[in-house]
User: Fold this.
Amino acid sequence: LDEVGRWPWPRSRLASLGQMAATVAHNIKNPLSSIKTIVQLMQEDEQLAAKYTQDLSLIKSEIDRLTESVTQLLKFSKPTVTASASVDLAAVLEKTLLIFRPEAERRNIRVDLQLSEKPLWVRGSEEVLLEVFQNLLVNALEVSKQHGVVVVRATVAESAGQQRVAVQVDDAGPGVPQEIQPKVFMPFFTTKQKGTGLGLAVVQRRIMDLAGEVTCLSPISSKGGTRFEVTLPRIEG
Assistant:
């Protein structure tokens, strides 16, 4: 990994890792489904449910947790289908914030969207970019305190004769320690007690497949905070 946690691997090696992850995930997901079905049948048995209520509930919750991990693994292994599709990134960001508004309100966190202009056409699909910014927004909300502010800012800049759209997701959390910043995009690395460690790895893979870049900067003020910045080539709509 380099200083901002980007993989120095060639795409062929990343593809091989993805294929291996898909194989492992499929081999785990089917048995988990079978085990969950058995547990649900046991819960429907009144005698068993009365005797093992707590144990069965614990088993089911752990199966759900493992299933979520496997789902994340499958997302990481799935290549990004770009073809020649284009999408208005401004509209994607507006939709993302609309989806997360109830959760932000529940946490008493304000989310501000700042768009320099509309539309902002980039290569990709709504599905892929929703996945990217939902991951980033989930992280921002999780580290923010009550009455905090998460800022999502989209601007246009020119680099090497090409216009690029830059989206910054800023939180006012404690920040990411310098010693772990090079690891934040590494698959399976997480500081969360129940995290899969694949959310940011998925983000980076999707953005790389779209000829873009994602970076992490922390702190962003004297009080801490973290900024994840995604840049993508701008195209004609």
Observations:
- The chain is about 50% helix and 20% strand.
- The longest strand covers residues 149-159.
- Residues 11-44 form the longest helix (34 residues).
